[in-house]
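Incident review: delayed structure delivery

Summary: a single-chain prediction request sat in the queue longer than the usual turnaround. Root cause was a stuck worker, restarted by the on-call engineer. No data loss occurred. The affected request and its eventual output are reproduced below so the record is complete for anyone auditing the incident later.

Affected input:
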Amino acid sequence: MNIDQDFLEKVSRLSKIDLDSSETPAYQKNLSDIVSLFASLSDVNTDGIESYRPTSLSLQQLRKDGQSDSINIQALTSLSPYIDQQNHHIEVPLFVTKDSQLLGNEE
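Output delivered after worker restart:
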């Protein structure tokens, strides 16, 4: 498939990629090569290969949802200094402060 200028402009607009005129030929060739690769998959001989049919889980295959006592509080308390002994809550040390910079929001 040959990718023309109009199609490339639509794709770049949808993907929010700013292309300048010097980059256009390279992007046209790369995108054309990618589409051709996918088109070549139709030439693969699939005789004798069963089509893939995803199986769905029946309700009998799902585990029963319920509460369990899977955490041994005494063992956890001995491993972590951040356990509230009275309420058995795990306390997490403060690592984000009011002055912290979020990724992508640096000014």
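Verification: The chain has a mean pLDDT of 79.
Action items: add queue-age alerting; document worker restart procedure.
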